[in-house]
Amino acid sequence: MLHLLAATGSPQSLIINFGALAYGLAAIGPGIGIGLIFGHGVEAMARQPEARGLIQSNMYIGFALTEALALIGIVVPYIFKATGSA
Amino acid sequence: MALDTVALTAARCTEENSHAFSSMHCGYPAPGYPDSFIFTPFFRIGSFYFTKPMLLALICMAAVIGFFWAGFARPKLVPRGAQNVAELGITFVRDQILRPMMGRRGDGYLPFLVALFFFVWTMNLMEIIPVAQFPAMSFIAFPVALMLMVYVTYTYLGIKHQGLGGYFANMIPKGVPIGILLILAPVEILQYIIVRPFTLAIRLFANMFAGHILLLVFTLATWYMFSASIGLLFSATSFILVIVLTAFEMLIQALQAYIFTILTAQYIGGSLEAGH
């Protein structure tokens, strides 16, 4: 089957790209975390609309701290490089 | 076998026939670390290469200095023009970042925080400015340099205001049962010494790196799928996504500058107070 792929020249790989898999797994936790942050933030703003500014700024701070973990997940495949993958 | 495929592909895939719907079936030129982030230097002195990110950093430095100099060279009581905008920037940093985290006694650190905020924001903005189009903060060296300044500052201030033993003693929360304290104390000490500077630098770097790769993926997809067939529709959709993601990147750039500055203010504020 590999010779058929070579003949068409299609550069498909039958090897799992662990870097991409790693990011997919890394995005689960921050996804839930950011959902919790903004969900609770919206609920808090609904309960007390006067505190909107305070809640909004804390929401964005929490979002950036949680997002950092997901983005470290994007960068890690480039750090821990297997031979020829990234 | 795999090497033959790569060599064959590289030999016959030129710039004209590498689109998606051509008969050559050349692969998508995915952006990645070496290809999109290494630049040929403008000149080199020995082993010092002067590359595009360094040029962008110098331009940003000149822009920030020039902007605030133009604003406050001849300050008037009723501000006009550049002074108006510069005062807006300074009061934003003072009221939204400095005062909530440090209170009034931190006003001496306002120049540092203003410079940090506007430098980080300008460097991030270089991603969407037409000729430059590269976020200089996606080179790990620049966030690490800023992080080192912040790290040395808050460690030195913490030791100066709380004493050497007091600085480490105040890291450990009080009123906690001894079993939890055994786990919590090393975590808290590592937090101050390793985790905070590391995440401070990596957060800024990874946001800019990921944003740049995201924009590159869709821009290259626009080029790759461009052909006189259904590819036009795909290409146009990809282009619309590039525009939407550029707007998203503008938000992320400002947000990351704000986060870097407010965390710096929080760490310095935590070091200034003598104990919890």
Main traits of this protein?
heterodimer, A: 86 residues, mainly alpha, F1FO ATP Synthase, 4 helices, 74% helix, elongated, B: 276 residues, 9 helices
Description:
- The complex is a heterodimer of chains A (86) and B (276).
- Chain A is 74% helix and 0% strand.
- Chain A has 86 residues and is mainly α.
- Chain A has a domain at 24-79: F1F0 ATP synthase subunit C (F1FO ATP Synthase).
- The longest helix of chain A has 28 residues, at 52-79.
- The mean pLDDT of chain A is 81.
- Chain B is built from 9 helices and 2 strands.
- Chain B has helices at 2-12, 33-37, 52-72, 82-102, 110-125, 141-162, 164-169, 178-224, 231-272, and strands at residues 43-45, 48-50.
- In chain B, helix 3 crosses helix 5 (110-125).
- The radius of gyration of chain B is 24 Å and the shape is globular.
- Chains A and B meet through helix 1 and helix 4 of A and helix 1, helix 8 and helix 9 of B.
In short:
Chain A is built from four helices and no strands.
Terminus-to-terminus distance of chain A: 25 Å
The greatest interface here is:
A-B, 21 and 28 residues
CATH hierarchy class name of the domain at 24-79 in chain A: Mainly Alpha
Count helical runs of chain A. Answer: 4
Radius of gyration of chain A (Å): 21 Å
What does the main sheet of chain A amount to?
none
Please render the helix and strand layout as text.
The complex is a heterodimer of chains A (86) and B (276).
Chain A: H1 2-8, H2 18-26, H3 28-47, H4 52-79
Helix pairs in contact in A: 2-4, 3-4
Chain B: H1 2-12, H2 33-37, E1 43-45, E2 48-50, H3 52-72, H4 82-102, H5 110-125, H6 141-162, H7 164-169, H8 178-224, H9 231-272
Antiparallel strand pairs in B: 1-2
